[in-house]
Amino acid sequence: MRTVDELLAAQKSALRENGALNYRQRQALLRALAQMLRQHGTALSEAIARDFGRRHLRETEIYEIYPLQAEIAYVLGHLRNWVRPRAVHTRWPFLPARSLIIPQPVGVVGIIGAWNYPLLLTLLPLISAIAAGNRAILKGPRLAPQAMTLLAQTLRDVTSEDTIALVQGSPDVDHAFPGLPFDHLIFSGATRTGRVIARAAARNLVPVTLSMSGKSPAIIQRDYPLAAAARSIMAGKLVNAGQTCIAPDYCLVATDQCDAFIARAQSATLSLYPHWADNPDYTSIPNGRLWERLDGLLQDARGKGALLWQPSPAPAWPDGAQRPFPPTLLWNVRPGMKILEEETFGPILVILTYDDIQEALDYVRDHPAPLALYYFDRDQRRALRHCKGIAAGGLTINDTIFHVAQPGIPFGGIG
Predict the structure, then answer these.
(1) For residues 119 and 138, is the Cβ–Cβ distance under 8 A?
(2) Do both 158 and 244 map to the same domain?
(3) Residues 242 and 259 in one domain
């Protein structure tokens, strides 16, 4: 098995000898990736379930396999136009010369996947890299070893490692990978890790695309039906047990409606997951460290005066293969609690209150720009007017999550 340095050298050598991928080669590779997903999608979903301890196969199909297949179909439908040179205006003294913008591949792209959606967040950047004519080396997330082992095998059936290669994550690989002289580096994950990766890439002046998560808010206007808002927010919160970068992290509700919203959110949670601990539809937390982190956030908040509701208390899961964490509502949350200072990344919804809608808007503006913003309002014109003043990576009005399913809308954060 070749090292990452050897794979990078081999891909750069292949680039020098054979050039970038042409239009036909890109088409063929994308179609081969689609065929791989059709043929091995179930096996990959089963491997992810084993890595998580418990995750329903349909959840992986809906949120990873199908979006990848849809993205490939979208790219194949537009690729011919994307690769064509584009004529632009030429000033009259230079006529009859022509001015063209010619799309060019950058070379070899490094891609660092994320464990929460190990297929989607590893292969989605790969689809873009291949569509642009590049070669790529993928670094699989360490928390998805079984899925990445199978993915590496299936990718070798698609093409040679001189075009696409996947290396398993390990402490040594994780440390070395972002410091390699790629022509571009793509990372999905936590902001703290993104800073480390950007510094490492800067030593070689490697351009970096960072897709980093954060605390995505849901704002509920006073006149919006609370039951409908609660259903949408809890559905978006509990997908993958909250281990989703665009999951609603906290919601802002009018102070005099807080108790009513909590009751609606409780009903929505029980409707979605009447039994969570042994429910095969409810995803586990992959390891004890992440489970204990979530429990620590709750203990810190409760110790400082926060109140919480869970369908049933969380048992200890020190050594079990399955570590589900209970759906949790948390309110009476105050500054100084850790849960307001870092992304939750679990099935805990923080409920904050406002007396005036401007107070809610200012709260969001005064914090780092979120990856996603959710706004619930009967008046969509008012909603758009309010949201225009908030920097966010994406926006869904009167629902959650769904903006990422639209191929024509860019996905990413602010920065």
Answers:
(1) no
(2) no
(3) yes
pTM of the model: 0.94
Phi, psi (5° rounding) for residue 193?
A: -70, -35
Domain end call among 180, 196, 212:
212
CA-CA distance, 307 to 327, in Å (whole number)? 14
413 within some domain? no
Cα–Cα distance, 91 to 85 (Å, whole number): 18
DSSP string, 169-213: --HHHHHHGGGS--SEEEEEE-HHHHHHHHHHHHTTT--EEEEE-
Domain that holds residue 102: 4-212
Q: Are residues 199 and 285 located together in one domain of the fold?
A: no
Which residues fall within 8 angstroms of residue 43, CB to CB, at 6 or more apart? Answer: 150
Burial 65-85 (b: 16+ CB within 10 A, else e): bebbbebbeebbeebeeebee
Let me know whether 247 and 299 are in one domain.
yes
Domains contained in the chain, number: 2
Q: Token digits for 127?
A: 């689809």
What's the rounded Cα separation, in Å, for the pair 286 and 397?
Answer: 31
Best CA proximity match to 21, nearest among 102, 129, 124, 125 = 129
Residues whose CB is less than 8 angstroms from the CB of residue 132 and which lie 6 or more positions away in sequence, other chains included = 103, 105, 106
Residue 411 domain-assigned (yes or no): no
Whether residue 195 is found in the same domain as residue 228: no
Q: pLDDT of the chain along its 415 residues, tens only?
A: 789 999 999 999 999 999 999 999 999 999 999 999 999 999 999 999 999 999 999 999 999 999 999 999 999 999 999 999 999 999 999 999 999 999 999 999 999 999 999 999 999 999 999 999 999 999 999 999 999 999 999 999 999 999 999 999 788 899 999 999 999 999 998 888 999 999 999 999 999 999 887 899 999 999 999 999 999 999 999 999 999 999 999 999 999 999 999 999 999 999 999 999 889 999 999 999 999 999 999 999 999 999 999 998 776 654 567 899 999 999 999 999 999 999 999 999 999 999 999 999 999 999 999 999 999 999 999 999 999 989 999 999 999 999 988 888 887 766 5
CATH number at residue 269: 3.40.309.10
H helix runs in 53-190, sequence order: 57-60, 66-83, 120-131, 145-158, 171-176
